Amino acid sequence: MRFNGFTYATVLALLITSMSACGNPTANSGPAPSATDEAVNPAVENIMTRTSIRQYQPDRSISRDTVDLLLHAAMSAPTAVNKQPWAFVVIDSRESLDSLAEVLPYARMLRHAPLAIVTCGDLGKALEGEAREFWIQDVSAATENLLLAAHALGLGAVWTGVYPSTERTKAVQERLGMPANIIPLAVVPVGYPAHEGEPKDKYKADNIHFGRW
Q1: CA end-to-end span of the chain, whole Å?
Q2: Nearest-CA neighbor of 154 among 194, 102, 213?
């Protein structure tokens, strides 16, 4: 199986290699593993050290091959009944990024990012009836995959929510010329980090219940 010149095995190998590479600027930050652990699985470490990055190195672009890897990772997410009700808008021109920032003032980091990926639901591919809303879970899973892949590749990214805000959803749809059946879930600015991120330790035992509540 090939994806835009990449074999599936190559995509996986590149991501795994990147996750275990020492060059990741944020890979060693955050809470340290338990002293009893002999080794930390690189995939788990990538999850535990990912954090939101809102400042990016100026004038450093992201290659199209890297963008392809991010999108392969996003579309490897789980999806209800394998409907894959997602679509992605890749924005890499300065004019378009600044234009999107105009209608999303809370996403001012777009003015400094070299790239943004808008993760969307395609209602034309979604399940029918009450199950249609599962597109939200599917696209959310794809968005998280995108964030984890960015971190693994030494990039920084941040999830900026659009849906379910009616105002934000309409603004992005209009600015990007989306048809009515395409619902933007999130805008994800991406760039090479201008600083090391400090992941938060969000684990709380009080949130866990075994067996039943």
Answers
A1: 44
A2: 194
